[in-house]
């Protein structure tokens, strides 16, 4: 799959986003740069836009106007979303490393010509393909066009895109989607990003009941670790989110978890968090930063800005 290296390199970007480790950034930047270079070389101009072609929306098929099925396409939503996310990460790391080059200019020039990462169709859903094709399998287990919602931060707090993502997810699930372990794990994270703790909890229960073996490994079948890792990521995402440039505590807390305590959680920007809550409200939190900085925080309906000092613990 032509987007494989780009997606894998996003893990390098995210590791840096969480740790702010410049030595890691120096080591990873050449790999990230080459993945970007591949995309720049692979894309071609079509109707005034830079597009990936040939490509697919992983394992899914569409229905053409004449009734035939198709898979090959150009610039399906997931391609553009991954490319946009990687280019953003590459530029940030280059900036933090004080790298100013023609290559970064080339990325920015390409970005200006690419299709929108999120296109909303006439039915209010995020489009999976470059055109509004019919869907051969409305309940397909992949929900690739919501990469922008999770793990990417493209959707963010945009209410219009959040509504379109929710409708896309609800439509896919109502037709039988999410029936494998890894798919359900991804959906748990999507509900977290949509700040819907009750739906998130329902999916965790479904994952445990329908896709978990007696030894607690994920049953694809026969086995995929994605379901295990993804479910844990989704639980973390329900409790702490930091992809929007601020820290949000308990963004998607299920009512079943109304009392609790966590420690050792991390947030993007180099923060470590410990917190406790009662009756679904934060009753205490400690935040430690690896650097002097200013960061927004949202909890209990409160939004404020914190001024943190390196290695000092700030208590809410």
Structural write-up:
There is one protein chain. The strands form 4 sheets. This protein has a 4-stranded mixed beta sheet. A hairpin with a 2-residue loop joins strand 1 (44-46) and strand 2 (49-51). It contains 8 helices and 13 strands. The N and C termini lie far apart (46 Å). The mean pLDDT is 96. It is 40% helix and 19% strand. The protein has 316 residues and is of the alpha+beta class. Helix 3 runs antiparallel to helix 4 (102-111).
SSE topology sketch:
Layout lengths: L3 H16 L2 H21 L1 E3 L2 E3 L10 E2 L5 E2 L6 H20 L5 H10 L22 E2 L23 H16 L6 H13 L3 H14 L14 H15 E2 L4 E4 L10 E8 L3 E8 L2 E9 L3 E7 L2 E7 L4 E3 L1
Helix pairs in contact: 1-2, 1-3, 2-3, 3-4, 6-7, 6-8, 7-8
Cα shape = globular
Give the number of DSSP strands. 13
Secondary-structure element order, N to C:
HHEEEEHHEHHHHEEEEEEEE
Spans with pLDDT under 50 lasting ≥5 residues?
none
**Helix count, DSSP H or I runs of 4 or more residues:** 8
Average pLDDT: 96
Q: What portion of residues belong to β-strands?
A: 15-25%
Major pleated sheet:
4 strands, mixed
User: Which structural class should the secondary elements be placed in?
Assistant: alpha+beta
What is the percent of helical residues?
25-40%
Q: State the end-to-end CA separation.
A: 46 Å
Give the neighbour order of strands across the main sheet.
6-7-11-12
How many whole angstroms does the radius of gyration measure?
Answer: 20 Å
